[in-house]
Model the fold of this input.
Amino acid sequence: MTKKQKTMLARIIAGAVLLTAAVLVPYDGPWRFALFLPAYFMAGWDVLWRAARNIAHGQVFDENFLMALATVGAFCTGFFGEGEYPEAVFVMLFYQVGELFQGYAVGKSRRSISSLMDLRPDYANLESGGEVTQVDPEDVQVGDIIVVKPGEKVPLDGTVIEGASTLNTAALTGESMPRSVGAGESVPSGCVNLSGVLRVRVEREFGESTVAKILDLVENASSKKAKAENFITRFARYYTPAVVIGAVLLAVLPPLFMGGWGQWVQRALTFLVVSCPCALVISVPLSFFGGIGGASRQGILIKGGSYMEALAAADTVVFDKTGTLTQGVFKVSGIYPQGMEKEELLELAALAESWSDHPISRSLKEAFGGEPDPSRVSGAEELSGRGVRVQVDGRTVCAGNKRLMDEAGAACAEGPAAGTVVHVSVDGTYAGHIVIADVPKPDAKEAVKQLRERGIKTVMLTGDSRASGEAAARELGLDDVRAELMPADKVSIVEKLLSEETGRGRLAFVGDGINDAPVLSRADVGIAMGALGSDAAIEAADVVLMDDKPSKLGLAIRISRKTIAIVKENIWFALGVKALVLALTAFGITGMWLAVFADVGVMVLAVLNATRALGAGRA
Amino acid sequence: MTKRFKLVDLDCANCAAKMETAIKKLPGVEDAAVSFMTQKLTVTAEESRFEEIMDQIEKACKKVEPDCRIVR
Done:
């Protein structure tokens, strides 16, 4: 509790004591109301003072004014014999208790969310002239040397020049597996150094560092307001005046026909208590804030409530293939020999390609496991657009595409394969083929499955040939694939898919943030992954997955849907209770107590519900 | 130019919304956001008159929520 809240608590207790004392005094004359004044002012002098001050500033319909009017009104009706003085005081006390509790709850959840995002390093150990001093990270220049001890946060982005350690990147990526680093490797700020001392050369100023970028993004997230949030702000603007007008009508119209002024005025005053829209105004952004905070804990940065809404409504997810669903590294994915052993075919291919430094030959060598013996190879000939022809142990070996096989007189059947195919022939006889493909990420299949289970259509875009694109899509279980695309085609494909979206459905595009900024901005939600250390991706995307796991996407959608559900619950709950209490009040069924509950009680419940969004990321 | 300020004693979400509306209406302010969650005010305004505009903003905020203070 803050000091302010403690004072308030003391005042509430004192007010309650004074109220009890006043009730117990056995005086029943016309001055009885004076007995309750001390309790009333003890509980609510600040409300009255603020009400008066705000009216002077032209702020009429605020909470304080409404409470002041309602309780002073209750006092007056008591004076004229139809009400009770204790009720006026009690309502004020109850209101203050509610306010106190709400302030406490909001403050607490706000702090717990903020602490999730507490990546900011407090200091940096700057090394200069053989001495190490603690300085503010903002004062460190590019090129300075800093020392990061075990247990400390890496304060700035840099390159390790000495030492080896493991880093906990959980705060950035949500990944609990420590990452090991050694000299020459770069370390992002915000990680926690776990084991060894590192000497790091600073590569970027604090303002440009990963931590500063992320903090900036999350703190600014609230400025990109969701539709639900805007709806509530607009709603609040009309709601309060409407209820106040309702109250005036209620106070004036029925008694004109039926009489009984005091009773109707009291009902009208109760209306005023219910008219504050605070429960809504606070719980909606708090829910989004909680959802965004919970997601960032999992290494998912969502740049605003509006993107959370779009994510929750996503019914099409378009993936870029390379670097998103696949690792962007070529590997031998299949060996299909004909008339020889797998190892022999691989060895022949590796030998034949041993002169080349093409990515394909590198992956062949890697699969073979070591450098092939160059003395066995002679007379290598590169045949452009076809492959290579070499002599291996005196035999003519050709390795390349189908055209080369035709030239060599080796009969081969070309079937569809997921990747690049290297055919091999020996002395004009077909020896089999090797498939080299971009390897899918280990969780790519799972990621696609998760999305499809949620009824989301998955589409993959790739520059690969149709055959290899379709094979990869089949393997990963995608609904649709668009192959043989030039980079520029991606925008038009996404635009076409966008135009096919109907109703509330939204389209999300997932890329690795490299060269796909136009597509990221064109989609309803642009998602960049593997963004740790990539500024371009962080800037271009609406949602950033800090590590490169596509399965985080399902999680992001789950968190968003849960958050939106909480937002809707809160809107309906708060509006429902208020409407109900208004109706019951109009018919005189309930009194002011329930009205105070409908105001502060609902707010506290809505705030508590909103904090559930914080845990949405946990399984 | 965009600058961010901390807000002290911003206690009510509805007031934050009202402050935001009031600040946005001020001449010279291109954009403004009051975040109740982060207790921060973000203002985009003409650079040459920034200080002067900030004075206006402070006045406007005092009107809406006299308890809240902008840390400049």
Notes: Strands of chain B lie at 2-8, 29-35, 40-45, 69-71. Chain B has a mean pLDDT of 84.
